[in-house]
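Milestone 3.1: sequence recovery, worked example.
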């Protein structure tokens, strides 16, 4: 590191202040070592700044590369999802049609079985009625006879007054 530190002038100032020459030289050397280890020059700062700019550009390029990869992966996943959803829709529609046809077939079977059960019940009822007829005989109610009332007589007229003569 090249710093602008005049160690000779520093030693002279310390001697002028009353410090022994050997101590002043040791202190000047110590300050020089400290400055070389801990302080940076403008050139070193520019080098670090250039390195940082280069590193930032590299990171930006890597970020853009990752971003492009992510976009491509996302589009791939979207396409896969759309295809999978379409396949599921097709499978679901097929299953609904199969289920519907099975339900219609079962409904037809149930109608046939119900009809057979109704006919069997009616046949059983008629068979039981023949085996054990009702002990009560049905007698229809007697026919209503007309009652003949005497015919009303002709209305009687009051005796008429004798004819008037003129």
């Amino acid at each position: 590191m090249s710093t602008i530190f005049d160690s000779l002038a520093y030693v002279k100032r310390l001697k002028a202040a009353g410090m022994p020459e050997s101590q002043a030289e040791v202190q000047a050397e110590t300050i020089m070592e400290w400055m070389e280890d801990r302080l940076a020059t403008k050139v070193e700062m520019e080098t670090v700044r250039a390195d940082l700019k280069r590193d930032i550009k590299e990171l930006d390029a890597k970020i853009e590369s990752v971003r492009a990869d992510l976009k491509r992966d996302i589009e791939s996943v979207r396409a896969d999802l759309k295809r999978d959803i379409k396949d599921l829709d097709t499978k679901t529609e097929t299953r609904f049609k199969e289920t519907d046809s099975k339900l219609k077939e079962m409904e037809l079977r149930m109608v046939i079985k119900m009809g057979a059960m109704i006919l069997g019940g009616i046949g059983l009822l008629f068979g039981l009625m023949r085996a054990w007829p009702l002990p009560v005989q049905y007698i229809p109610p007697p026919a209503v006879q007309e009652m003949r009332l005497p015919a009303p007589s002709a209305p009687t007229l009051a005796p008429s007054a004798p004819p008037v003569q003129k």
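The mean pLDDT is 86. The first helix runs from residue 7 to 16.
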